[in-house]
UniProtKB/TrEMBL annotation:
One MF annotation (Gene Ontology) recorded for this entry: aspartic-type endopeptidase activity
Name the record gives this protein: Aspartic proteinase Asp1
InterPro entries, sorted: Aspartic_peptidase_A1, Aspartic_peptidase_AS, PEPTIDASE_A1, Peptidase_aspartic_dom_sf, TAXi_C, TAXi_N
Positions of the catalytic residues: D79, D277
Pfam families per record: TAXi_C (PF14541), TAXi_N (PF14543)
PANTHER family in the cross-refs: ASPARTYL PROTEASES, EUKARYOTIC ASPARTYL PROTEASE FAMILY PROTEIN
Domain Peptidase A1: 61-404
Entry annotated with the keyword Signal: yes
Family membership noted in the UniProt record: Belongs to the peptidase A1 family.
Signal sequence interval, chain numbering: 1-23
Species of the source: Punica granatum
Any one Gene Ontology BP term: proteolysis
Keyword set, alphabetical order: Aspartyl protease, Hydrolase, Protease, Repeat, Signal
Amino acid sequence: MKCGGRTTASRILLLFLYLSVEAFQVCLSDFPRIWKRSPSAPPPGSIVLPLSGNVYPLGYYSVSLKVGRPPKLYDLDIDTGSDLTWLQCDAPCTGCTKPRDQLYKPNNNLVHCKDLLCSAIRTTGNEPCKTPHDQCDYDIEYADHCSSLGVLVNDHFTFPLTNNSILSPRLAFGCGYNQHIPGSISPPPTAGVLGLGNGKTSIMTQLHGLGVIRNVLGHCLSTKGGGFLFFGDHPAPPSKISWVPMFNLEKHYSSGPAELLNNGKPSGVKGLEVIFDSGSSYTYFNSKAYRAILNQLRGDLNGKPLKDATDDKSLPVCWKGAKPFKSIDDAKAYFKPVVLSFTKNVQFQIPPEAYLIVTKHGNACLGILSGTEVGLEDHNVIGDISLQDKIVIYDNEKKQIGWVSANCDHLPNGDPHHNEGISQPYYAAGHTYREDL
């Protein structure tokens, strides 16, 4: 998940998110009887939602969702690396970045301590509830000192189904009335976060727990900006999808072990466990894998007219050409793909356009960073930059992760205007990237 403004090479912050929110068991008795589907009945359909945003210069992808009665539109940062969905809350709100009329206002819909939802998220680090009728508080703490404090609520989310019907279940989420953002970090431009991790607090898990959708989700992020998010089913031909087993890593979509290939040959780097995280703008490898990738790229550039652009601080490693690059297409011919090889020779290809950005200075910068240097230890994270132009599927029912190359510019129905009418987040002066590992 991201806290706010775009990172520079001199201030990449620690990427861990510490949630004081533990997974909870969805209690169907807390929801209207209409959502109690018969176990033998098939789910009603799937959900496909358009996305806004890009890797650079914004550094995030967001979705607009309608919440409440009457429904109100909120733009949320999509994050497969965290569970709890939360909105900036008019309660009153401290440290909020949206105008008051764009904040979520609770209306006698607090989750109380007596609810099973609350009893499951209480941790030893929290103050215990004094009475069963107290409100259920949450506190998300980030190692880069960003945080969100609030109360759990439940309200209606409105989802359009692909079968032209409307789904409007009550779901639990956080109403964040106290966001703390350090002065060095630009405020987040979105109204909150859509938690899509595989823990039980996530919106996806709640929808599945209500029996209204299959426990499958995914995304397609376009290099041109935008894309789409989907729940319940995937819009890709099954024969084209590369599948790998999903690790049982709580709240995260992880797979492995993977071997790093150097120009199709073994690099000596094996056993990489990889987390797929749409809440990370860039991709991070441990120090050994990062050095191998950097050495490979530098070796491939020998004899080519590129020089280190040390004056460009957009990212740690940048190159300049004989003249400024205008787009990735101008730069990618000098670079070769990075390849992760999983079991049974299933390969995750990261072509140059999925690890490079072209900055406002016209330089090509490496969007693969050392996770070890920013506190990720041995974790490896595949972020937005390397997820672009692929349909990526998280199948929680079969415990597998899949991907296939795709054109993410249009919704699966082929509508080229799917982003029209969707509220667009403003361009931030900077953006800090953070994952909640």
